[in-house]
Amino acid sequence: MDQVLLDTIAFDRLITNPSLIPARTRSVLEEAHDVFVSVVSLWELSNHVRDGRFIVSIPFEKYFKKALRTHQVTLLPIEWEAMEYMSTFDYQIIRKPYTKMVGDKLIEGTKTDLHKDTFDRLIIAHSIIRNIPIVSPDEMFPHYKELGLRVVW
């Protein structure tokens, strides 16, 4: 693959613990000519830093600029075409099987929900409009295959 786009989880793992990325996926990253991460992922990670879920030992900007350089990742700005695309596609309806115990009875069914994560949806839009695969372990992303999303993990 010439180009790939990292989602927030994949970027986080790349810069903090690459061993959590499957070997096949690491090979894809090593062979890619261009590896992108959306500025949206940095926005999301800034929220994690603020909330104490992602720890940086130096100022946020210095930490992530160094991470981008070290891992040869290009920061992708929010693009008008992606915003336009987001304004036209619907939330994907996600159906997941579930089981739960109520007393001594096992209840099974299907939970239906909407994928409302705006960060994910903008990253997905970038991947679709640029026609580049997205690197992600997110279980929600394969629900967008019918819209042309290609997921690598």
- Can you count the beta strands? 7
Class by alpha and beta content: alpha/beta
In one word, what is the shape? globular
What is the helix fraction of residues, given as a range? Answer: 40-55%
Instruction: Profile the largest sheet.
Output: 5 strands, parallel
Report the average pLDDT across residues: 92
Q: What is the ordering of alpha helices and beta strands?
A: EHHEHHEHEEHEE
Supply the number of helical segments.
Answer: 6
Description:
- The chain is α/β, with parallel strands linked by helices and 153 residues long.
- It has helices at 8-16, 23-31, 39-51, 60-70, 80-86, 118-130, and strands at residues 3-6, 34-38, 74-76, 93-102, 105-114, 134-135, 151-152.
- The chain is 41% helix and 24% strand.
- It has a 5-stranded parallel sheet with strand order 3-2-1-6-7. A two-stranded antiparallel sheet has the order 4-5.
- The chain is globular.
- The model has no long low-confidence stretch (mean pLDDT 92).
Features:
two-stranded antiparallel ribbon, 6 helices, 5-stranded parallel β-sheet, 153 residues, alpha/beta, 41% helix
Summarize the structure.
With 153 residues, the chain is α/β, with parallel strands linked by helices. Helices cover 41% and strands 24% of the residues.
Secondary structure topology:
Layout: E1 3-6, H1 8-16, H2 23-31, E2 34-38, H3 39-51, H4 60-70, E3 74-76, H5 80-86, E4 93-102, E5 105-114, H6 118-130, E6 134-135, E7 151-152
